[in-house]
Amino acid sequence: MKNARSILKKMLSNKETIKILNDTANGLDISALIFDINGNVLANIGANIGQSGSENESGTFSFPVNIKDEQAGYVEGSEKAAIIVSILTYMLAAEYDKRDLIDEVSSRYKEINLFYDFTEKILGCSTLKDIALLTLSLVKNFIKADTVSIMLKNDETNWIDVISAYDYDEKTVKNSIVPFNGESIAEFVMLSGNAEIINDISLDGWTAPGGGTTGSMMCAPLKIKDKVIGALNIATENNTEFSSSDLKLFTTLSHNVGIFVENVKLYKDLKEIFISTAYTLAETIEMRDNYTGNHTKRVMEYSYAIGEAIGMDKDALEELRLSAILHDIGKICVKDDILLKPGKLTDEEFALMKKNPVFGEEILKKIKGLEHIITGVKHHHERHDGKGYPDGLKEDEIELNAKIISVADTFDAMTSDRPYRKGLDPKIAIDELIKCSGTQFDGKIVDAFIKAFPHIDISKS
Predict the structure, then answer these.
(1) What's the CA gap between 70 and 36, in Å, rounded?
(2) 329 lies in a domain?
(3) pTM
(4) At 187, phi and psi to the nearest 5?
(5) Which CATH number characterizes residue 42's domain?
(6) Which of 147, 166, 401, 459 has its CA at 20 to 30 Å from residue 377's CA atom?
(7) Does 276 map to a domain?
(8) Is residue 420 included in any domain, yes or no?
C-alpha cells in the first residue's frame, strides 16, 4: 500500500534526489530543512547547511508537503523555500504515478498469469467438481479465501444445485440442492447479474450459500451469452476486506468459469446422446435375435457392477459401459441363418459366428473416438487359459474390460432362456463361473462379480 510519508523518506534517501534539491537550493541561495510528519529531519538542503540560526526565527517559514490529500512532511526555511516544496511535491506526484503504473503492470501480469494457468489446466477438467477445485487452487494465490463453490440454477425445479464446494485442504466436498427463495447473496447475484462483495455476512442480513458459517464472501454470476446460469462464490470464515480489484479479477475469472461450465454440460449432454444412440443401435441388433431380449442391458449392468467392485474410477467405468453396450455390434455382419438358428451350430457355422468380434473391431475402427473401446469388444471371447478367440490371448494379455465383459456375457447367456433350453438358475450359473475360474475366466473378475451380484437390480430387464 502506498504511503506518502514512507515515499518521501525513501525518495530523500536517494543521492540523485538530494543532488537535484541541493543544486537548486544553492543556485537560488536557499537553505532549508526537510522534516517527516513527526518532526524528524530527513534532509538539510542548500548553501548554509549546518549554520544553526543563520536565519532568525522571524525569517523562518514552515511549508507542508502534501500529496493526494495526505501530508508527507514539511519544509522549514526562508520564504524562498516554497520552491523546494514545489519541487518535492512534483517529485512525489511522479513517484506516485510510477508506483501506480508498477501496481497496474503487476496486477495485469497476475491476471494474465492466472488466466493462462486456468485456460491451460481447465482443458483437463471433465467435471464441474474438477473446475471448482482448479478455481480454488488458482484463486487462493491472488485472493484471500477459505472455500470456493459453483452453484447452478435448475430452471426445471427452481432450486439451486450446489455442484461443489472445496476448502483449501480439499477436505470438504458438498453436493446438495437449496431452494431458490431469495435469501442468499448467490440468488441475488443470479437475479441481478452483477457481482457483489459482502465483507460481513451477518451485518448485511444475507445468508451464505447453503446456510454455512461465513464471514465474508464474493459472488459473481456465471453467464452464457448474457444468460445467468449460476454463480461462483468464494468465502472466508472470518471477516475480511475484499477490494474492488479483487472483485474485478474474480468477475473476469467467473466469466471464464461460466464458459467451461457450459462446455462441460454440453459435453455431458452429447455424451449421453451418444451413449443413448449406441444403446439404440445395440437394441436394434438384438431385435434380429429374439431370445436375447435385453441382453445388452443386463451385460452392461453386470459389467458396470464388476467395475465398481474392483474400484474402477468414473472415466474407466464409462469406457467399460460403452464397451459392454457395443460388445455384440459385430453380430450385425452375421447372416440370419446362422444368428437365428434355433439348434446347435455346425463347426463351419460356429467358425463364421466366431468372426463377430473381428467384425465389431472393423466397424468401430471406422467411428472416430471409439478406438479406446475396441479391445474390450474384440477380446470378450478370449479365455484366461489362451483357448479363446479370435487371437488366443491369455491372462494379462487380455484387456481388463474384455475380461469383465466375458464374465458378464457368459453369465447372462447361461441364465437366459433359449428356444432349445431353459435358462439356468443364477446360483447354478455362479457355480459354473467358479468352476471355470482360472481357466475360462480371470478368478479376480469372477470374485468381483459374485461380490456385486446380490446388489444388482435386473428386475426391469
Answers:
(1) 12
(2) yes
(3) 0.50
(4) -65, -40
(5) 3.30.450
(6) 459
(7) no
(8) yes
Residues 100, 136 within the same domain: no
Look at residue 152 and give its three-state secondary structure.
strand
For residues 445 and 319, state if they share a domain. Answer: yes
Residue 320's pLDDT band, with cuts at 50, 70 and 90, is very high
What CA–CA distance (Å, rounded) separates 411 from 405?
10
What's the rounded Cα separation, in Å, for the pair 264 and 257? 10
Q: How far is CA 13 from the centre of its chain?
A: 48
Q: Go through the chain and tell me how many residues it has.
A: 461
Residue 41 C-beta-side C-alpha neighbours within 13 Å: 9
Structural domain count of the chain:
3
Give the residue among 334, 413, 325, 314 at the shortest CA–CA distance from 376.
325
Domain that residue 401 falls in: 287-455
Sequence-separated (6 or more) residues with CB below 8 Å from residue 259:
224
Q: Which uninterrupted H or E stretch holds 238? A: none
Backbone Cα Rg of the chain: 37
Rounded to whole angstroms, the Cα distance separating 373 from 90 reads 72
pLDDT digits (tens, 9 = 90+) for 52-109: 333 434 468 899 998 877 888 999 988 888 998 998 888 888 888 888 777 777 766 7
Whether residues 328 and 397 fall in one domain = yes
* Residue 445 resides in a domain: yes
For residue range 376-420, list pLDDT tens digits in order. 889 999 999 999 989 999 999 999 999 999 999 999 989 887 766
Residue 325 CB neighbour total at 10 angstroms: 24
